[in-house]
């Protein structure tokens, strides 16, 4: 994709608005397996990234080089792919069980596994070997996030622990044990240095806040349901959370008052996965109802969403332009649940992967229908090269 085309997409997608408050979104369109253009891919649009190592459990785009994608597999491998070329660059070994969490920190890649280990590797170092092995969790590592200043790594586990690591120590520098269920949801505040938020599973239901500079716990709020994901707004001191049973809702909280300023509903199953667009205005959510939904929760006008009936995804990733549009890599749809969603500032689109270990990559384009803006998945062979 050339730079002029990329700039045109950015101009089309990043619509300027005025209203600063998030509000309940409108459904624009839902695509099902039968009416999606993905169900009849052209020869120009078919570019697959197959995995030979079993089902993929996690995906994360490199934050600087958006062509690089890390993939964690069921068998414990971490693959590095060139997404633009559809080429696997390397295969990292070291884990003995599925890799369910990945986090980039420049050229350092952290991976968390069911084997309870966190491995940190520098992808520039040949041969690619583990630099550090971090041991602290007693059960599967299910969440990883680097702080906004790239100095601290937060990890959450099925052992209900939230651990904080630095660059120099092989042991956690902080350990928080207040959660009563698995800690998958983790988010560092971009507004307050050292402020960390975490969410607990079904037996816990709480969002907790921590001052990692002092090691002290801060506020805690019982949300009433499983906390699946957390993400801070870049534009306001607000936090979005996604939830499970019974309402499967998406909530927006104002910090530090923890006032609920928006409640978004539409998913019919727990909202297990969340990614935020790099411009900080939109989020994409995935659930077991086999839909992806796009929400402008932090933009300056009325929020909108698009539900997409998509391929059964073991992993989904939203890139820099991941807001609906041109399908450049596709295959017939497979119906199944949607799994992890990640977002990377340098990536070229929305990526998902099905049980056949074949990836689908879509590039976004905003189109106009009946005089108003809408978003859709479109196959455009001219842009699929």
Automatic annotation (TrEMBL):
Residues 58-295 form the CDC20/Fizzy WD40 domain. CDD domains: WD40. Pfam families: WD40_CDC20-Fz. PROSITE patterns: WD_REPEATS_1, WD_REPEATS_2, WD_REPEATS_REGION. Keywords: Cell cycle, Repeat, WD repeat. GO terms for cellular component: anaphase-promoting complex. The keyword Repeat applies. WD repeats lie at residues 134-175, 264-305. GO terms for biological process: anaphase-promoting complex-dependent catabolic process; positive regulation of anaphase-promoting complex-dependent catabolic process. One of its GO terms (molecular function) is anaphase-promoting complex binding. InterPro entries: Cdc20/Fizzy, WD40/YVTN_repeat-like_dom_sf, WD40_CDC20-Fz, WD40_repeat_CS, WD40_repeat_dom_sf, WD40_rpt. Belongs to the WD repeat CDC20/Fizzy family. This is CDC20/Fizzy WD40 domain-containing protein. It comes from Limosa lapponica baueri.
